[in-house]
Amino acid sequence: MSSKQAIVIGAGIVGLATARALALKGFSVKVIERSSKAVGASVRNFGMVWPVGQPEGELYERALRSRSIWKEFSDKGVFWSDAVGSMHVAYNETEWKVLNELYEVYKKDRPLQLLHPDEVLKKSEAVVPLNLKGALYSADELIVDPREAIGALPAVLEEKHHVEFHWDKCVSYISDGTVYIGNEEQFEADIIFICSGADFETLYPESFNEYPLTKCKLQMMRMAAQPNDRRIGPALCGGLSLIHYNSFKAAPSLPELKAKYEAEMSDYLEWGIHVMVSQNGAGELTVGDSHEYGTTLEPFDKAFINEFILDYLKRFAQFKDSRVIETWNGIYPKLTNGDTELFFSPEAGVYVLNGLGGAGMTLSFGLAEEVVKGL
Fold this sequence. Notes:
Layout: E1 5-9, H1 13-24, E2 28-32, E3 48-49, H2 58-75, E4 81-82, E5 86-90, H3 93-106, E6 112-115, H4 117-123, E7 134-138, E8 142-144, H5 146-161, E9 164-166, E10 173-175, E11 178-181, E12 185-188, E13 191-194, H6 205-208, E14 213-223, E15 235-237, H7 254-264, H8 266-270, E16 276-279, E17 285-288, E18 292-294, H9 303-316, E19 324-335, E20 342-347, E21 350-354, H10 360-373
């Protein structure tokens, strides 16, 4: 056994990625999780590994590295994945102009195709043909089912990297390299990582208060498995997604598009709604989402938000079976200053890794490797 001991608190995607990176660095790793399995934002998302949303440079490279790790696990049969890519569709001239601009900006360095309507419909029969101007296809994106993938990773980390998992254990406090679980148990380590997601209140709350952190609540839905094993092809995104991701700010006409949405769809912007759909291995469709911000968020879903999402979805996607079989919300931490991650040390040997916003599935594996390498 390694002489270097590490503890990771939290078994969501950031915690799992950190545990993997520490184990590869030669640490003997324990993961402590307050629940019997991951139940937070890491299992409440599209399962989209989404390089297309990351701007050029460090973040795009980090996303590609994360994608390669997801693919490596999937290729070994740990969980299902589908390298279907993504398709952003346009239904007015301004959206089409933005997609053309993005293609020109990124075509040299990314696997992009600018598709005309007939080419779009060959990629996906689920796209609505009426008024379709075209689409931007990216081959980078990988889909997993987050519930399956996050659920499967602990066993692999145990088997391949000898990571110990301690479930149903809530850490009360940390002091001098010791992690205390109530008055019953304690673990010592050379290095401790806190990957606690939207929980800023339990450990080092005064330290979290020093950073520009808030929480984001999103509402999502799942539709029934499509009949006859029908696949929708790439993950599909309506025009509203173009004003959501930082990489799309490279389009000179984006402010014009945003102004158009503000004039015509202010209700959608008020609730941070942009609409995307991905398909899991069972053929079910994951649809969302909205964005509400605050440190304390209502636990109750708003029916009108789900209706907005479904109404907009119908503008660009059509399915053989549109029955909604599940609805839920997820809450993730979000930095309000535009930073893409929060990494700090509240005391010697203790590190907090958090604040990836909605990009945990896309960036965590790559970020964890970078952080651990830099220790």
